[in-house]
Amino acid sequence: MLKLFEYNWQVRKDWFAWCQDVSEEDLPKKRTGGVGGILHTLFHIADVEFSWISDLQGKREFTEPFEDYANLQKVTDLSARFHEEVRPFVMSWTNEMESKELSELTSAGEPVNFKYGEIMRHVIAHEIHHIGQLSVWSREVGKAPITANLIRRGLF
Amino acid sequence: MLKLFEYNWQVRKDWFAWCQDVSEEDLPKKRTGGVGGILHTLFHIADVEFSWISDLQGKREFTEPFEDYANLQKVTDLSARFHEEVRPFVMSWTNEMESKELSELTSAGEPVNFKYGEIMRHVIAHEIHHIGQLSVWSREVGKAPITANLIRRGLF
């Protein structure tokens, strides 16, 4: 579990560095699919990871809109700030936490239960999926994407 | 580990069903990013999963080109055939296999070692990443993508 989080964090860091060479118009530009743009995707990834892991810790979710963070420095800083709160929880994960239950309410007000292990894997898959979208849009910008390879990253 | 494979297999099956309603021109059509098309991506995902897991079992990789499988039925059948060989290995995964070593040669002929656990996570991330690309291209075709959510799939 931990290795896949470390992979995501490394890839996200690489994408923030990648963004440094992209024009200020291209990063927030509206695009087809996903949440609709490169910078908005990075914001969304950081938001979703933080909000779910806050839920697992009984802390408040993040609810501020992308519009308040629509430049590269702000999203980079937000992601770094969230990382400081997310990382200790992920690093202290144990197998016993797998089957703990999180109770939420759906938007219709219905109770719904999730296993902690289910939420953790959801968060992992969520980031990788959205990064896949960045890899398409990177070609529209005319730049090669960050490699998605998990091997050869020094993680093992 | 197993849950993320099950997630990928379920999502892949959903995408094959999704393809049924897409025109025969749109599926192989060349697109920006990734391996360059919807059908080619599904072929590539099945190929990479099968080839790495064959490596871990000391079996031969798959080396046939996409061009020999460039229609929906052929890729669906290939993925199903590969699944029969991949699934027993994944289902019998144990923690002791994590640190087993796979020795490969790079394209330059240099020896390189991977941990079995590293390869398994690489395969998981590889599929999720490429499915993220499909989710962008699906909008180009005018169809909603398959949900990438891992929660609410009955996996836990």
From TrEMBL, chains A, B:
<dbReference type="Pfam" id="PF05163">
    <property type="entry name" value="DinB"/>
</dbReference>
<dbReference type="InterPro" id="IPR034660">
    <property type="entry name" value="DinB/YfiT-like"/>
</dbReference>
<keyword id="KW-0479">Metal-binding</keyword>
<comment type="similarity">
    <text>Belongs to the DinB family.</text>
</comment>
<protein>
    <submittedName>
        <fullName>Damage-inducible protein DinB</fullName>
    </submittedName>
</protein>
<dbReference type="InterPro" id="IPR007837">
    <property type="entry name" value="DinB"/>
</dbReference>
